[in-house]
Design brief:
Length: 286
Amino acid sequence: MQKLKAFLALTKPSIMLLVVITGATALIMEGSLLQEPMRFFMAILAIYLTGGSANALNQCFERDIDAKMKRTAARRPLPMNSIGAVPAFAFSIGIGLAGLAIFYFMFNAYSALLSLATILFYSLFYTLYLKPNTEQNIVIGGIAGSMAPVGAWVAATGHMAVEPWVLFLIIFLWTPPHFWALALVYKDDYRVANLPMMPNVKGDDHTFKQILVYTWLLVIASLALVINEQFNVVYALLALALGGVYLQKTYKVMKVREVRQLKGLFGYSIIYLFGLFAVIVVDSIV
């Protein structure tokens, strides 16, 4: 059982829950798989397997870095020696191939190709190049974490559309302020690991300003769905309410700058994304 938990931890289940929800939201918006629950489930499973593969490969490549950081040393299976590097790597490749096979054989080659590109982008380009070399790592790397709605839509339809790219934009703009709130709390960890995170490279003031800019852009982007006739004024009001709380908390953190407030902002960012996508789902169904 402990080994199974270690393998599961490699996929970063808490992160993958958000990824799966964003992918499922796109499927519900598109609608065609709602009449085929098994195919709907298989699309979600493929999203988890491919996203989990990218996360697991990330941990394989960063196991020495994770061992240096207090936040990860006691939480991730490789630095805790709960699992060996070779089995972890084999597991990472195995679940990735399984997810790609589901996309290819049950859906289409286009969705499999997009998922493969996402795995390679995150596990290789982001992990091995962006993260150790630029403070913009989370901004550019956020592309990978934002792709679930696009991949899900393509799996269901075989083609692109505007709607999943709006969801992509929301997640893409949400990722930096979400992550930087945590980076401000654990900047000493990143300094020890010699990773160029925004607070360590540009300082706290610049990081807070960037959090505010991205949060404003996020709130504005969330209203782009109103252009779609499927979404109405109720969605706009709820999106504004969620975004207004996010902005209020951001301004408060900028003024107070306490660890407790930063953790609270990080926590609310998760509630915000869950809440916004829940509203999108309800508005799509009703």
